[in-house]
Amino acid sequence: MLNLLKKLSIGSYLLLAGALAAVVALIVIIVSCSPNAFDFWFVQMPWVIVLILVALVAIAGVIFFAIKKGDGIIPTVLALVAVMALVFALIQTIEGKQDVLGTVMFSDLEKGYAPAETACYVGFTGMIIEIVSAVLVMASLFFGYAKPQEAAPAPAAE
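RE: above sequence
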């Protein structure tokens, strides 16, 4: 395990931080869903879950290919897939939460109604964490994912 960590570069650590943030965002967004939010739960939430899982699989693929083959086009493409999946998950979350955001934050229609306020503010927190996750994965694109392999020493001449 320690040898595996020694092969990783700063980009891989940013990816792992982004993956952790994506998992936290998913948990927070699931918690923010009230049982009365049927539209969000049945329409957008499956897409949010699938897109975040796609991003996590793509991140795992980046690290796998970076360790096995080093930096190249495949890890870069997989990182871009992860970024796009996280951004589309954010879009789906915003689309699903727009009603509660509008009625709690931008009008006083549900002000003082605890379930709506909780769903709004916890959902907004999940969106912020999703943004952080996407930014971490985007930042990883500027760095290498694996340290360059050192060449084996040449045998000594006799």
